[in-house]
Write a structure and sequence with these properties.
Blueprint (H helix, E strand, L loop, with lengths): L24 H4 L1 E5 L2 H8 L14 E3 L3 E3 L4 E5 H23 L9 H21 L3 E3 L2 H17 L9 H6 L11 H10 L2
Antiparallel strand pairs: 1-4, 1-5, 2-3
Helix pairs in contact: 2-4, 3-4
Amino acid sequence: MAGVAVHVPSCGLVECKAPHRVIDVQESGLVRIRCASEKVRSVCGGARVPQAFAPYYKWVACRRVMWRRGGVSEFHRVCWEALEEWAEREVSTQHASKRKKGRGAGGGGDAKGEAKIRKKLASLLVAAGETAEVWDNNVALKEKCALIAERLAVAKCVLIFTGAGISTAAGIGDYRGLFGKWMAQDLEAENK
């Protein structure tokens, strides 16, 4: 259809090695996170975006994550797993350093400021990971479907309990997804 913009997901991990950062969901899977815009702004401040990404992104945080408008970022599955591991390590280091606070001389101002932003980003990512939307690649999806088929074939009775993920895949609107009701409300508030 002419004139219709199609969203092609690009990996939000700054260190991503994929050509043009494009995410082929069928091959690599995809993870989408969303954070409240004001939280992203509080971590990112006035950071600038590389010119090549300017049409798609509004913020860059700590040289690690690029965010699109509305506090959304998408990743290759492996990129997200590496970033999530880093964030969890940063947060656990943060908790350990709070216990040791006051035991040594302070560091330089810039280094302290960067460390503080890094820790805020890590905390933001750990929280976002709890509600991340995950798409499996085709291989993982086929394996999961085969496992479900096996279990259904031997079951005497079946009860299927689903959540929002199944309805959004069927085209029923959601609340927290990229085009969900909460996202639309956040964007309206942001544009006022």
